Automatic annotation (TrEMBL):
One of its GO terms (molecular function) is lyase activity. This is Hydroxymethylglutaryl-CoA lyase. It comes from Algoriphagus halophytocola. PROSITE patterns: PYR_CT. It comes from the Bacteria. Pfam families: HMGL-like. Residues 1-271 form the Pyruvate carboxyltransferase domain.
Amino acid sequence: MVKIIECPRDAMQGISGFIDTAIKAAYINQLLEVGFDTIDFGSFVSPKAVPQMRDTEEVLSLLDLHHSKSKLLAIVANLRGAEDAMLFPEIDFLGFPLSVSETFQKRNTNASIQEALITVEEIQNRCEVAGKTMVVYLSMGFGNPYGDPYSAELVAEFVQKLNQLGIKIISLSDTVGVATPELITELFSVQVNAFPQIEFGAHLHSRPEKIEEKVSAALLGGCLRFDGALQGFGGCPMAEDDLVGNLPTESLIEFLESRGQQLELNKAELAEAMKLIPFVFNP
């Protein structure tokens, strides 16, 4: 069955005005009622780097997890953030942004790829002890605008390294919305077949008219895990295109169900979540 990871953290983090903590928590609590597999709810990173996420710990304390089947994922960018996240038993997954682009890795985590790989190994070792699962996002997984080396073979090399570290979930990320359907299908089909023990996800950014062809291509390649954000909020600021945002979850759901996927989501609760969006993302 296809898994949908709803990403309010990704949707909120680029909003310049600070969203009230109580509003964040109320929105995420409503998302928890929908039945998504996982909620990417916050991040343990420097408040200077991402001011919007400075209240993640407080938001977590306000979440009602008792009647939800959804799991929680928090993003971390270094070992210190990971250790902070591991203090909370409510958090199931720790997500780490690893890039195949040296330029973007330095911009995103202020570290080289080699340094980031060492950090991945350290966090993975601690996750195994703490009973957490690490999710590695391969940023710039479909190409980059910096002129850094890129190829499908390079992506395969990264996956091989992560497999050797015991990583069980890898999300291929189209950070700036450059992926073609052909490349999406190729990358997923090759990796899914080569590493059946790894769960591969798609974190795709897209212009609205390209959404269905990209999701269809990922399905064709064997991807069964998709990230989305209601109404497509979020995306990479470096894309320099307001239309290249996250996959709108409502569009993702509609398309997947049209392809016969049984998602087992509570549509009434989803409608209530949609009603809250103007109050959350009001500039």
